[in-house]
Amino acid sequence: MIKLKNITKTFPGVKALNDVDFEVNPGEIHVLFGENGAGKSTLVNIIVGNLAPDSGTYQINGQKIDCLSPKVARLLGISAVSQEFSLAPSLSVLDNLFLGREPTRWGITNKKVMVQRAYKVLNDMKVKLPLFAPVNSLSRAQKQQAEIAKALMLDAKVLILDEPTASLTDIEAKRVIQLVKDLRQKCVAIIYISHRMREIRALANRVTVLRNGESVGTIESEEITENTLVEMMTGKKAGSLFPDISIRPGSLRLKISDMNFSNGGGYNISLSVHSGEIVGIAGLVGCGKGRIGRAVFGLEPIKSGKIEINGETVTQFSPRRIMRLGACYFPSDRVSEGLCMNRPVRENITMATLDSAAFVERGFIRLNNESNSSMVCAEHLKVDLSKLETSVENLSGGNRQKVLLARGFIRDIELFIFDEPTVGVDINAKSEIYLLMKSLVEHGAGILLISSDLEEIIKLSNRIYTMHNGSIVAELMDNNKSEENILSCFFGK
Amino acid sequence: MNSALYKIIHNSRRFEIAMFMGIALLLIGFAMKEPTVLSTTNILNVLSQTSYLAIFACAQSIVILVRGFDLSLGTTVSVVSLFTALVMVSLGAFSIPMGIAAGLLAGSIIGFFNGYCVAILEINPFIVTLGTYNILLAVSSTITGGFPVTGLPTIFPKLFSEISIIGIPIAVIIAVLIIVTLEYLLLNTVFGRNLYLIGSNPRAAHIAGISYKFNSIVAYILCSFLIAIGAILLTARTGSGEPNLGSQLTLQTIAAAVIGGMSLRGGEGSMMAPVLGACKRSRGILGAQSGALFSLR
Amino acid sequence: MKLNINNKALSWIMKVRIDLFFLPFVIFLIVLLMVFIEPRFFSRLNISNVLRYFSALSFTALCQGLVMIVGGFDLSVGSIMAMASVVSATTMISIQSIVPGMVGLHILCGVGAGIIAGALAGLLNGTLVSQLKVSPFIITMGTMSIISGSVYLYTKGAPIYGLPKLLIVEIGRGRILNLPILFFVALLAVLILWFIMVKTPFGRHTYAVGSNPRAAYESGIKPTTIILTIYTLSGVLSAVAGLIITARIGSGQSGIGSNAAIESIAAAVIGGVSLRGGIGSIPKVALGALFLAIISNTLNLAHIDSKYQTMVLGFFLIFAIAIERWISALFVRALFGGKG
Amino acid sequence: TNLTTVTAEAWSNFKVYNFDSGKPVKVDISPAEKASKPWKLYALLPHMKDGYWVSVNYGLVEEAKRLGVKLTILQAGGYSEMAKQVNQYDDCLSTNPDAILIAPIAESGLAAKIEKTAKTGLVQIGFVNPIKTAPVTSKIFVDYATKGRQTGEYLAKLFVERKGKVVAFPGPQGSGWAEAYLNGFHEALEGSTVDILADKFGPAGVAESLILVEDSLQAYPQMNAIWGGAPAAEAAIGAVEEAGKEKDMVIISSYENQTMVDFLKEDKITAFATEFPVMQGRIAVSMAVKALEKKKIPAYMEIIPQMATMDNIEDIDLTTVLAPPGYRPVFSVD
Ligand SMILES: Nc1ncnc2c1ncn2[C@@H]1O[C@H](COP(=O)(O)OP(=O)(O)OP(=O)(O)O)[C@@H](O)[C@H]1O
Ligand SMILES: Nc1ncnc2c1ncn2[C@@H]1O[C@H](COP(=O)(O)OP(=O)(O)OP(=O)(O)O)[C@@H](O)[C@H]1O
Ligand SMILES: [Mg+2]
Ligand SMILES: [Mg+2]
């Protein structure tokens, strides 16, 4: 159906794709796999017409395509879920779902039809979204769902999904996977990008692995194993993903008692995090797990309740004050809340650290220290060192996420609040991040890990709070923290 | 190797290099057409004219960096000029330092007011500075009834306008000092870094513990302080306090900053931008001059 | 879970609606104040004065509002106004001399020529902005000096007299239902634009391009086309503003509109349009224009020494907006609790 | 066109006040003869945006052509462009001119520079806008306060039987000249039967003035006279008509342009004051050439302003006041 040959694409200073061949046929799910920055999103962007390749040929249904614009691609039936979303933040969810192809009657948008069709797709996905709220008021996971719904809105012949499930829990991801399978049945050609092995195994008919902008090879579904994939991806054998963390809970790092949100939706939340432990919070999209982290950091107004950090009660809810108490928060939405996109990577890595003596002397930045430390940090997290001085917007999705996390490892922090820390990060970098977390905890920090990745939560944390509908419904420890237990809690059992 | 080259060019601001080369080429072009344009007196003359605009454009750029605006720049210049002159005329001895201090203080107060309204009251900078523009317009046309203040100590214009050091006019020297210091501060201090980060993504900066309020207010104060310096130099140039010294400067400064490469969306650009923009505008002056001379021939 | 989300949608809708409600509230407060200070504010003639000032201002504000929604700037409003004024006056007079007598035709041709000139200027702006990838601030500043330069060159600063009486008396000063005709023209424009921006795909696309041009492009919208159309439309709107002023002062003038850019941006910003694009509603922009018109009239009527008027205007601008924000925050807090 | 072929006879002796003795003495002033060589003159004007300055431009250009000298005219672009005019002054100097004709935006801004240049012996002529103290070779202008006084006195004469209520629209706030006009006007009306209800400063455009006049008509229903700059007077005509008060409203303009002439002839305004802008331009060039050719010239002259009314408008030689209709400003004469 779609056939790309000898595709090359260079960005200033980077060869993102080098002589790559790729094809996908109707009724097939073709998975693209590779490290962060391997060129997957770039390839996809070429297919949907967002970027023009430097050289190479592009055929759809045997017909050669020259100047492809997203508009033409849509007319040809190509529909895409992009990694960093193609949503207009100030428009409502409904408007975004139909952006560029609003149903009209006599030239006027037909809202009724729009609402009906939106509900139909959202029901298929078993998702509830506030249709009339502006997109910038949604959490990242909700944006992700909106983006998927937007792509499904079109009766596509080719569907492209670039990490569609990265911020979703298994429950929601399963729905998406089921929908994708249904579409395969209907002879849609599907390109799927993911770093989650489980999904790849469940879906893939074929996998093409990219490394450094070059195609390493394509394998059929029978040959897919985790080891082969990782080996193709990096050229090395796969190690173990999750480290063994020795938990030694010590003094109280964070204590929340009877907290209620001002905007409604949270009920008497109480929890605690000690030094030397990782505490997980799990729950479905929109259950309010992210709001807890935000509330601790003063980003979500609270009506009542008490928050103590390192024994001190928080009275002034500004991130600045709270950071002085030794806490740091890592937002889940890297683009809108986490990063300064047009500033260099180095500045983003150190941005939360500019009050520590290691980097600052009488108001002046010690530029050498800053450079060196950010380089060390970037190296740890496997961010390309040559990119230290380019602006973050030139990085691939996963690398952006790593830059966001980097700011935590460069500063002395006693309480870490991670909201979806590993969204879009490849397996290798993930294990690296977990190792870093391990060393943090073993040096006495406390970590509150809010995540939709169940495996991550179960393997890393020693205690797990599960949430449903704004309340904490259970605290699971030791043997209790099994997948079935957590899943049943998700539905408020 | 490709990427190394790229890095060098990227880091050394290819845009600015291109602009400089463009300006230089144009100068050569003018000179071929009309050689007296490149006479030393004329060059120095154009340079010192440029330096005033460059100082104002730098001031404007600082608030543009944090997604702001200063529409009150022009009337701030007038008010500071009048204040400085009034104090100098009314005080006997020490009148010059006191006058300068009064001007700088007036500038800082205006800056604080702007910053307070923008950062604490959270009103759109466009509206705030438009409001301040109007307020200062009234101030500048009432404190002296719309008339200029004359009778400044004669040494004042000598010291701050006519004097030149190794042949370079004092205004140029002060402007260069200001620009170099500012550029250094922006790149090397936490405050400068904060301005970039806030301008780039205020929400992310807030979450990273950077105080929007404090830094914005300081940015506005710094902006108006620089305007005050420029205004004092201009006062020295005209030798009198003028109630409408700078009303048209505002748009020019924004233009200079944007032409030079500042982004009105914030978080981008360096102090070279306003300077380049100002130079480009004086290229206009040179052009007009050579045109005029040409017609005289 | 359902309850939460509905609640959230509801709360968002409430917030937006309340927002729309506060500017009228502040305007209402000012009007109420005037009852005590100067009852003449409510005389028929004065209300017409305010509304006629509003009608010209609302056109420039709408023009600016649209351009700002799509993420741009238009500093050339004033020069387009002057150009439309001069072009239409010249056309009227030359047609008058060719076919005397048919006054309706003269006016029609004049207005048509003015609007076409405005559209062309807008098209020029739009083409440059969408093709050159240079900041619209610089581009429209450039076109501003080009247009006003050529208008001056043409008129040499002299006004153009001898326009049809009908234009001045019936349109410039005419009334329907005791309100100025021009006001209804403005009202009509506001309603039509509101409809377009809210109800048509084009309107949605405009917001999308302003909000996130990349996302709009990736959704199959052509930002260049949208930008081109909006700038052309804004050229037409500024031209109409110029024509309104021409009808009011009764001559073609090259000097009108010198304050239009700042004034219109102010009206749009007061009306809640974001300088960063994608946000803003048409009726609120019109309210912003009304707010400015009322303030200017109020200051003139309130017997304030005119030297201090600009000072009062300055404080008014800042603090009226501060009060508007403060009240709306208060309401939001009262309705939804918390620290807003 | 034939307009440009003006000969020496085009203007002959023109009456001005000579202040060289310290007191105003009415004298005749005569034009220069054709120049002995093409002197290089510069003229600095505040702007070229209205009929008034176009007329000044006309006077300068015609005289330069007549005398056969080179003239370059630089305009600053508006009364708020003080800094730009200072730059232009410097630009002139750096090109070695023979004489500079200066219509300053504000004397104070250029005073220091003029003084410095004066020491080099360069011929500097001040014209149109007052130069009070700075040392120029010669100067000709009208004292705005005098002119304001004159219009005030004229107004007072119209209201001997009934009481006058006037609102003043002097022009832009902080511009210097508007304030000076207004001061003279106030002075003249002190103790007369005319009350000044308010001074309304505002931008000098017809559209802006219209709003100001309309609002004032509401705020001061008792007013029966309007005094202001030309744009305000022009705007007043329509506004007064609409308010139905055209019968008993006196409209006086403090300065002239083609519109004022036309409206005066149609009896839509009562009077305007004139200070002969064309002649000021001509005299400035003539004096510069005379000075360069080492002829004796007065050091300080003032124009004798005149009120133009329905009765005398036909007698005034309008070629000494305004550029002919259709005249296009010229910026350099070779
Ligand atoms: N706009 C850009 N400018 C410069 N370089 C870019 C740009 N976009 C992408 N790149 C570079 O191109 C390479 C490929 O990026 P791409 O986004 O395709 O990676 P990816 O495979 O999708 O990675 P991830 O798993 O992190 O999403 C990276 O090295 C990235 O830094
Ligand atoms: N009852 C409520 N009232 C108002 N807003 C709510 C309510 N419940 C949730 N929200 C909003 O919904 C969004 C989702 O909440 P949150 O980020 O806590 O979800 P989450 O559990 O982290 O899920 P995910 O991040 O996976 O979407 C947030 O922006 C939050 O402000
Ligand atoms: Mg990617
Ligand atoms: Mg979340």
Automatic annotation (TrEMBL), chain A:
Task: Work out whether the entry's keyword set contains Transport.
Answer: yes
Q: Which UniProt keywords apply?
A: ATP-binding, Cell membrane, Membrane, Nucleotide-binding, Repeat, Sugar transport, Translocase, Transport
Topology class, membrane: Peripheral membrane protein
Domain ABC transporter, residue spans = 2-237, 247-489
Protease keyword on record: no
Where does it localize?
Cell membrane
Q: Name one GO molecular function term.
A: ATP binding
Q: Name one GO cellular component term.
A: plasma membrane
Signal peptide positions on this chain: none
What name does UniProt use for this protein? Sugar ABC transporter ATP-binding protein
Which organism is the protein's source? Desulfosarcina ovata subsp. ovata
UniProt gene name: rbsA2
From TrEMBL, chain B:
Q: Where are the transmembrane segments?
A: 15-32, 52-69, 76-94, 100-121, 133-151, 163-187, 217-239
Q: How does it sit in the membrane?
A: Multi-pass membrane protein
Q: Pfam families per the record?
A: BPD_transp_2
Which PANTHER family does this one have?
ABC TRANSPORTER PERMEASE PROTEIN YPHD-RELATED-RELATED
What this protein is called in its record is: ABC transporter permease
Origin species, per record, is Desulfosarcina ovata subsp. ovata
* Molecular function GO terms recorded: transmembrane transporter activity
What phylogenetic lineage does the species belong to?
A: Bacteria, Pseudomonadati, Thermodesulfobacteriota, Desulfobacteria, Desulfobacterales
Q: Does the keyword Cell cycle apply?
A: no
Q: Where can this protein be found?
A: Cell membrane
What keyword terms does UniProt attach to this protein?
Cell membrane, Membrane, Transmembrane, Transmembrane helix
GO terms for cellular component: plasma membrane
Q: Which residues form a coiled coil?
A: none
InterPro entries linked to this entry: ABC_transp_permease (IPR001851)
Principal subcellular localization: membrane
UniProtKB/TrEMBL annotation, chain C:
Q: Which InterPro entries does this one have? A: ABC_transp_permease (IPR001851)
**Which UniProt keyword terms apply here?**
Cell inner membrane, Cell membrane, Membrane, Transmembrane, Transmembrane helix, Transport
Tell me where on the tree of life, at the top rank, the source sits: Bacteria
Question: Mind naming one GO cellular-component term on file for this protein?
Answer: plasma membrane
Molecular functions per Gene Ontology = transmembrane transporter activity
What transmembrane ranges does the database entry give? 20-38, 50-70, 102-124, 136-155, 176-197, 226-247, 311-336
Location comes to: Cell membrane
Q: Where is this protein chiefly located?
A: membrane
**Per the record's keyword annotation, is Aminoacyl-tRNA synthetase included, yes or no?**
no
Membrane topology is:
Multi-pass membrane protein
Please name the CDD domains in this protein's record. TM_PBP1_transp_AraH_like
The role this protein plays is:
Part of the ABC transporter complex LsrABCD involved in autoinducer 2 (AI-2) import. Probably responsible for the translocation of the substrate across the membrane.
Q: Which PANTHER family match?
A: ABC TRANSPORTER PERMEASE PROTEIN YPHD-RELATED-RELATED, AUTOINDUCER 2 IMPORT SYSTEM PERMEASE PROTEIN LSRD
Complex and partners: The complex is composed of two ATP-binding proteins (LsrA), two transmembrane proteins (LsrC and LsrD) and a solute-binding protein (LsrB).
**What is the protein's given name?**
Autoinducer 2 import system permease protein LsrD
What taxonomic lineage is listed for the species of origin? Bacteria, Pseudomonadati, Thermodesulfobacteriota, Desulfobacteria, Desulfobacterales
Chain's gene name: rbsC
